[in-house]
Amino acid sequence: MATLKILVVDDEPGIRSGVTRILRNFRVDYPFMDEAFEFEVLEAPTGEAAIEIIENNIPDIMLLDNKLPGIQGIEVLEYIKKKQKNIVVVMITSYASLELAVKATSDGASDFIPKPFTPQELKSSIENITKRLFLKNMTNKLQDSGKQIRFTFLSVLSHELKAPLNSIEGYLKMIKDRQAGPKLEDYDVMIDRSLDRIKGMRNLILDLLDLTRVESGKAKRNVTEIDLFKIARTAMDTMRPYAIQRDVTLKLNGTSPLFIQGDAEEIEIIFNNLISNAIKYNKDGGCVDCNIIEIGKDIIIEVKDTGIGLSSSDIEKIFDDFVRIKNEKTKNITGSGLGLPIVKKLIDNYAGKIEVTSIPGQGSTFKIILPINKS
Ligand SMILES: Nc1ncnc2c1ncn2[C@@H]1O[C@H](COP(=O)(O)OP(=O)(O)OP(=O)(O)O)[C@@H](O)[C@H]1O
Ligand SMILES: [Mg+2]
């Protein structure tokens, strides 16, 4: 059993003893953790007392009220930041100072719990933090064992998931607090933005599943004779609603059918990613051409767009995990930067190659060369 120390800093004795009581017999345990976590609660009535405790007995988690009799919560937060103390800080605050709590989040607090909170709200927040600490600890261990790449991967991943979660949480709290007044329609923007962020997270998770499947090498591959045209058509049908939205025309060229030995699901992931990029980074009213041809011992698949294009230095980077090219033209386009790395790893399964040619402002061509595997 591991113990996490929680320091609760609040001038209201009721809050302090409440937290101690709620967490006394609380345990966090998941199948993926090798041991359960329990909690030891320390209490401080002022910011000054909190700093003294931090100096001698550093807590893992701090529940911090902002309105304190002497120095304010925000100043305690600054102190922790300056001294680079490794503490997860959660602001506990009344609804009235929600805005301040949001600001504190950008100053290093990792979460906030509005007061008054129920035992369940406190427990679920502590549970999430415990999971996060566990993950962080695990990634540290991985880093120690030299697995730097995994570490970077996991840190970027947690960051990518944290940003949309914070934003959705912020919106939900504003809605719960009726911050925009009594009219329902005044909340539409917040709801739409939250839905957008959820969509982004879902895509990221789907990409991750693909990547894990490819990287673990454990997934059973199902190699049979498959028609590339049939799979390309399926992918185009999947992407068509998106193309219509952007007024982009999709064309499939070549002599159908063309059979290869392959895993239909893998090939579909390749088409889905290249076609979705060709639509996403296109101009409104643009065109996507997918050409499939057999030349000698190779099959060439080309996905050509009339979009924003890529510079040669961009092309060198885009097959790395999480890379997204940031510029004026891409700033409103969302994505996780995992599509192309997945495509590249899948093509490796076929001993194939992928090449990119592009003219910025005019369009890009992604060309896959697959050696024909006649077995
Ligand atoms: N057809 C294209 N035209 C111009 N830029 C492209 C094209 N395809 C990819 N890119 C650039 O390469 C980056 C990486 O692409 P990738 O598909 O890996 O990620 P993404 O599209 O951002 O996210 P997702 O994981 O949702 O696919 C993109 O962010 C974009 O900047
Ligand atoms: Mg993509």
Q: Can you describe this structure?
A:
- The protein has 375 residues and is α/β, with parallel strands linked by helices.
- The protein folds into two domains: 2-212, Rossmann fold, CATH 3.40.50.2300; 224-371, 2-Layer Sandwich (Heat Shock Protein 90).
- Helices cover 47% and strands 22% of the residues.
- The protein has eleven helices and 13 strands.
- Strands 2-3-1-4-5-6 form a six-stranded mixed sheet, sandwiched between helices. The chain has a five-stranded mixed sheet with strand order 8-10-11-13-12, with helices on one face. Strands 7-9 form a two-stranded antiparallel ribbon.
- Strand 5 (88-94), helix 4 and strand 6 form a beta-alpha-beta unit.
- The N and C termini lie far apart (55 Å).
- The model has no long low-confidence stretch (mean pLDDT 87).
- Bound molecules: adenosine-5'-triphosphate and magnesium ion.
- Adenosine-5'-triphosphate binds next to helix 7, helix 9 and helix 11.
What's the quick description here?
With 375 residues, the chain is α/β, with parallel strands linked by helices. Helix content is 47%, strand content 22%.
What is the topology?
Blueprint: E1 2-9, H1 13-24, E2 27-28, E3 37-44, H2 47-56, E4 61-65, H3 73-82, E5 88-94, H4 98-106, E6 111-115, H5 119-144, H6 148-176, H7 188-216, E7 223-227, H8 228-246, E8 249-253, E9 259-263, H9 264-280, E10 287-295, E11 298-305, H10 312-317, H11 339-349, E12 353-359, E13 363-371
Helix pairs in contact: 2-3, 5-6, 6-7, 7-11, 8-9, 9-11
The protein binds adenosine-5'-triphosphate (ATP) and magnesium ion.
